[in-house]
Design brief:
Bound molecules: the ligand O=C(O)c1ccccc1NCC(=O)[C@H](O)[C@H](O)COP(=O)(O)O
Number of helices: 7
Structural class: alpha/beta
Order of helices and strands: EHEHEHEHEHEEHEEEH
Helix content: 25-40%
Distance between the termini: 14 Å
CATH topology: TIM Barrel
Strand order of the largest sheet: 7-6-5-4-3-2-1-8
């Protein structure tokens, strides 16, 4: 197992999934959010997740999803975790974990230190915190925008759960991000794309190489 886990998010084709697996990703992410250029329908998500080798975790990414959608996504057992990327409360996150029996990740939208402190409310309710850049009010998406936050906000902190770093990462800056935060898991989407929603095999390979050289 590499020292730093890597999640390649927003995969929507078998080719992109294959590239992420070959490059050494420990996690792949599939987005269910119709406004996203990376959105996949439940059938497509389950089909993509089903062909991922067992050693790679399959994360379904949702935004304030209701139980009906979550039931559809988790129906075949192909996902191994759910990532909540909306305004889900700690109570809602814990209820999702109980009802669907999967580890739950909570994305924390970060601009200031207060945003990171707010993550403490999720202690015990979720299995991983994913610190991502806060997108501007009125933005089309709550993630996948290529925005970064001030990584020094995470330096030396004792966090209340396993965690990961996300937002605006690329092969060029991920070394600095890891040096500052010592993140145990790194998540990326638009930084390994050639256009919104179109994953680049070369960028996926370069990114994973950059992380594993840290
Ligand atoms: O990627 C999306 O389109 C998306 C849409 C709605 C909710 C979450 C979304 N992505 C979640 C992720 O985990 C992304 O990898 C994360 O936000 C980082 O994105 P990026 O800055 O583009 O690397």
């Amino acid at each position: 197992m590499p020292r730093i886990a890597i999640k390649i998010c927003g995969l929507s084709t078998p080719d992109a999934v294959g590239a992420a697996v070959r490059a050494g990703a420990s996690h792949v992410g599939f987005v269910s959010f119709p406004k996203s250029p990376r959105h996949v329908e439940p059938d497509q998500m389950r089909a993509l997740a089903a062909v991922v080798p067992a050693h790679v975790e399959r994360v379904g990414v949702v935004v304030d999803a209701d139980d009906e959608l979550l039931a559809g996504l988790t129906a075949t057992g192909a996902l191994t975790a759910l990532q909540l990327h909306g305004k889900e409360s700690p109570q809602r996150a814990a209820a999702i974990r109980d009802r669907f029996g999967l580890p739950v990740w909570k994305a924390i939208a970060v601009k200031t230190r207060a945003d990171i402190d707010a993550a403490n409310a999720y202690a015990g309710a979720v299995d991983r915190l994913l610190f991502d850049a806060k997108t501007p009010d009125g933005a089309a998406l709550p993630g996948g925008m290529g925005l970064r936050f001030d990584w020094t906000l995470l330096r030396g902190l004792a966090l209340p759960a396993p965690w990961g770093l996300s937002g605006g990462l690329s092969a060029d800056n991920v070394g600095e991000a890891i040096r500052i935060t010592d993140a145990p898991l790194i998540d990326i989407s638009s930084g390994v794309e050639s256009a919104p929603g179109i994953k680049s095999v070369d960028k996926i390979m370069a990114f994973c190489k950059a992380v594993s050289s840290c």
